[in-house]
Specification:
6-stranded antiparallel β-sheet, 14 helices, globular
């Protein structure tokens, strides 16, 4: 039985409050990754784009090169799987819970049909035929599996799954650009399940016993030709369910009640009515980001994030985060130095060094207190409706993914920060409590070489961005102070190990 809208909204409000609470989850060993569940013969993606121009997102004839897009976004880099670094996409705890299902229409480097993508082998497993009216190009449906993340993060897991999905969407969008690519973070979850040929989460164990449910949360569309189609998912949603995954023995330590609660929460968020149906926003690459950037981007270790970034570079990455999604939360940067403060591209929110407070709010990760700078996405009130909860977290992950790629292209080091407790930024700034919470973060740092670069010294003397702190300026707003007891200390690196 589906809860009434008011009851479902109340359940989600309580789940959001619980995820933001100080109570720490039980610490358990990392759960091994299950084998890829979609069996049967697979098509190699390498070489499937024969005749494609090297370095281009499409072939000379306009077809979508899925081999390149997936290689630059979700594929496991060679030689890294043994170390647990499965792909260059941020993931809480290196758990990488996001999977991709390919809905391939005419004009792609794979024959039309449904496929499940295996990032370890970089192959596509056929799962069914395409509808006759499939739109040209490919739709990528991103799903999340919750068991490993819940096993490690308990009641804090479901926001991290949304953030991870946003990061994966950004990776795909960056790889597909500069060609036409559209991203939707509000497609109805039931429609996405039908389009990907998957059961609804509530029906999964009855329809696919012995397999782990996948929760569809976002989609991307890579059109191969100009078209008037406004909903590329609709044509796929009428197809019958596709091939099923291979049953696997259950293994893991996720408490059944917490796992069921996380799946139910995500399902409720994904199927909550959108404002006016799904929206498909165009995606763009920041100018300096290249294919080589996407191949080499990685999250830095906390010990490598102590050098402050050059102010003009910090301003550029902050602007990228702010502009990545028109429907996303606001962004601000906490910087130290001679005139520390919490700033946006429009001005200063607070004077003083906010990083120690952010460190307490971010599950007690002490290294954040001395990071070069910290970008934070904030919004999502305590009583936010389901669509806003889902959209805020997905868009925050997406924007952080784009900003991290931009930072890499500028020579900066970075590391996403996913878990935040009692991080009521609005209340700390003197606004009403419960209205403006931190939902995601991105630590940034330069290198000693950046600090000695003449351009950096010149920008420190004469900053070209008035939003960044400048020594000797007029007094700013009052310093940021935490509005709630700090979260209990957490060993550095536990909450984030991408």
């Amino acid at each position: 039985m589906t809860p009434a809208p008011s009851a479902a909204s109340g359940l989600l409000t309580r789940a959001l409050a619980e995820a933001r609470a100080v109570r720490a989850p039980l610490t358990v060993p990392y759960v091994p990754e299950r084998p890829f569940p979609w069996g049967g013969p697979a098509l190699p993606l390498a070489g499937s784009g024969a005749g494609f121009e090297a370095g281009a997102g499409t072939a000379a004839g306009g077809a979508v090169d899925l081999e390149r897009v997936l290689r630059l976004s979700l594929a496991v880099p060679h030689g890294t799987a043994a170390a647990g670094r499965l792909r260059p996409v941020a993931s809480a705890g290196a758990l990488h819970p996001v999977r991709a299902h390919l809905l391939v229409g005419p004009g792609c480097s794979l024959p039309p049909g449904r496929y499940a993508y295996d990032p370890h082998t970089h192959r596509a497993h056929p799962r069914g035929r395409a509808p006759a009216d499939a739109p040209p190009g490919a739709v990528v449906v991103l799903t999340a599996t919750a068991a490993r993340t819940v096993a490690h993060y308990g009641h804090r897991a479901w926001p991290l799954l949304l953030l991870d999905t946003g990061h994966a969407a950004a990776a795909l969008a960056l790889a597909a650009a500069p060609e036409d690519v559209r991203v939707s973070l509000d497609v109805d979850g039931a429609e996405l399940s039908a389009a990907a040929g998957l059961p609804r989460p509530a029906e999964w164990h009855r329809c696919r016993p012995g397999t782990e449910p996948e929760l569809p949360l976002a989609a991307l569309w890579l059109p191969s030709a100009r078209t008037h189609v406004t909903d590329p998912v609709a044509a796929w949603a009428v197809r019958p369910r596709a091939a099923a995954p291979v049953p696997q023995p259950a293994h893991g330590t996720a408490p059944p009640s917490e796992l069921a609660a996380a799946r139910h929460t995500l399902d409720q968020l994904a199927t909550a009515p959108a404002r006016t149906g799904s929206t498909w926003h165009p995606a763009r690459r920041p100018v300096p980001v290249t294919d080589e950037t996407l191949r080499t981007r990685r999250s830095a270790a906390p010990s490598d994030l102590a050098h402050p970034p050059a102010p003009h570079l910090l301003a550029r990455v902050l602007a990228t985060a702010e502009n990545a999604r028109p429907d996303g939360p606001a962004w601000a940067a906490a910087a130290g130095g001679d005139a520390p403060g919490l700033v946006t591209t429009a001005g200063t929110l607070a004077s003083g060094d906010a990083r120690p407070t952010l460190a307490r709010w971010a599950a007690g990760q002490r290294w954040i207190g001395t990071a070069g700078a910290v970008l934070v996405a904030h919004g999502c009130p305590a009583d936010a409706p389901p669509a806003l909860i889902r959209g805020s977290h997905l868009a925050a992950g997406y924007a952080a993914g784009v900003a991290q790629a931009h930072a890499t292209a500028l020579g900066l080091r970075s590391r996403p920060i996913g878990s935040w407790q009692q991080a009521d930024l609005g209340a700390a700034l003197g606004d009403p409590a419960g209205r403006d919470w931190i939902v995601h973060g991105l630590a940034l740092a330069g290198t000693p070489e950046h600090l000695e670069h003449p351009e950096h010294r010149e920008h420190r003397k004469h900053p070209d961005n008035p939003a960044l702190p400048e020594q000797g300026g007029p007094p700013g707003p009052p310093p940021l102070a935490p509005s709630a007891p700090p979260a209990p200390p957490t060993p550095s690196g536990k909450e984030e190990r991408p």
